[in-house]
Amino acid sequence: MQDDKTFSAPAAPAARRPAAPMAEPVPEAMTLLLTRRSVVAAKLGAPGPAADELRRILTAAARVPDHKKLVPWRFILFEGEAREAFGRVLADACAAEAAEPASPVRLETEAARFLRAPVVVAVISRIARENVVPEWEQILSAGAACQNLLLAAHAAGYAAQWITEWYAYSPRVRAALGLDERERVAGFVYIGTAREAPTERPRPALDDIVTRWTGPRARRDAEGT
Ligand SMILES: Cc1cc2nc3c(=O)[nH]c(=O)nc-3n(C[C@H](O)[C@H](O)[C@H](O)COP(=O)(O)O)c2cc1C
Question: What are phi and psi of 166, to 5 degrees?
């Protein structure tokens, strides 16, 4: 993996070289897209991706559509002892912000949250306000980064879950993450090894979510269709 040029090539100067061979079917990629499932954080365990694998996963996460190349997202990694230290931040924030006084059990749960997986990646959506690209599009790009992170983790042989939980919105946690006013947590992506295989969940029927455009709505309504 280390010999992959993706790691050593600087992002900007590489822009003019061909991105990839001309499109050909990649059945394995389609299988991944059609079968990927999240594994809940509580069912993740070691091992997590090694440093070179994580770099590759993050490289894939950063390869998303991004109108005007604003890079409206960044990643914060939690590994090893940092997960425990962040747990103390979560417990303190919970104690200070919970509507009802937090029980000792609740505080223990919060302190252990980031220990559920060997690697947690906070995906931070950041808005370049001075730019002309609508905020909505910049936020969508951050969502795409989260999804690529999930897919890349899965493609590398790991399991993952994209969650926000309460602490994505906690003022104290935001401060501990060093977020400025243009930044928001798009998700915490927990990455590890599944301790048990996930079961399938219902998916929307395509008939319920796909339509074909057949002309302006007003005209069709007037025609009684
Ligand atoms: C932005 C976002 C936030 C989410 N936050 C949570 C959460 O806090 N807790 C949770 O149990 N699931 C959360 N989910 C859902 C999980 O990712 C869930 O496991 C996933 O939707 C399962 O679908 P999948 O099998 O297609 O991956 C969130 C999903 C998204 C897109």
Answer: -70, -30
Does the CB atom of residue 125 touch ligand 1 within 6 A?
A: no
Task: Count Cα neighbours of 194 within 13 Å in the Cβ-side half-sphere.
Answer: 17
User: Crossing angle, helix 81-97 and helix 104-112, to 10 degrees?
Assistant: 140
Q: Are 75 and 61 in contact (CB under 8 A)?
A: yes
- Classify domain 37-78+115-196 at the CATH topology level: NADH Oxidase (3.40.109)
**Per-domain boundaries in the chain:** 37-78+115-196
pLDDT digits (tens, 9 = 90+) for 83-128: 999 999 999 999 999 999 999 999 999 999 999 999 999 999 999 8
Shortest-distance atom of ligand 1 to CA 166: 8
| Residue 10 clears pLDDT 50, i.e. is over it | no
Copy the structure tokens of residue 119. 């690697």
Answer yes or no: are the C-beta atoms of 56 and 158 closer than 8 Å: no
Nearest CA to ligand 1 atom 4: 163
Ligand 1 centroid to Cα of residue 164, in Å, is 8
